């Protein structure tokens, strides 16, 4: 199975929405620990924790998803190229920087992004090689 990154919005909805959890499991056709993560993604997820116990629990859960290296020089070059493509399209102020870095990492590692975030529509429109998939239909979960 090709590698897949679950974006932060989809990750946050796994515990709250059975439809998201089932869609991820159906896509993977296996356990959740076959997903991959990105360091910048882990850092963003942990900005919402309220105390050390939540931080430790979140980091333990995230540790089940192996990291894709996002500090490679190729990721930086790809991120700048992707941002340039967004500027050319006039959509560069849309996607959050963390999503730009996740997309660049996915491109370098040939991973698909399972998401619940329209930022990835803009990123994929700017770079056709980026593989993205709405994990459940847009607007179907809060």
Give an overview in words:
InterPro entries: PIN-like_dom_sf. This protein has 142 residues and is mostly helical. It has a single domain (4-134), classed as 5'-nuclease (Rossmann fold). Helices cover 53% and strands 10% of the residues. The strands form 2 sheets. It has a 3-stranded parallel sheet. Helix 5 packs across helix 6 (97-109). The radius of gyration is 15 Å and the shape is globular. The model has no long low-confidence stretch (mean pLDDT 93).
Helix content: 40-55%
From the spread of the alpha carbons, the general shape counts as globular
Count of individual helical segments: 7
Low-confidence stretches: none
Q: How many domains would you count in the coordinates?
A: 1
Strand order of the largest sheet: 1-4-5
Query: Could you please say which CATH topology applies here?
Result: Rossmann fold
User: How many strand elements?
Assistant: 5
Rg: 15 Å
**What series of H and E elements makes up the topology?**
EHHEHHEHHEHE
Q: Let me know the largest β-sheet.
A: 3 strands, parallel
> What is the name of the CATH superfamily?
5'-nuclease
Task: Give the structural class.
Answer: mainly alpha
CATH class: Alpha Beta
Strand content: 5-15%
CATH architecture descriptor text? 3-Layer(aba) Sandwich
The end-to-end distance, rounded to whole angstroms, is 29 Å
Mean pLDDT, to the nearest integer, reads 93
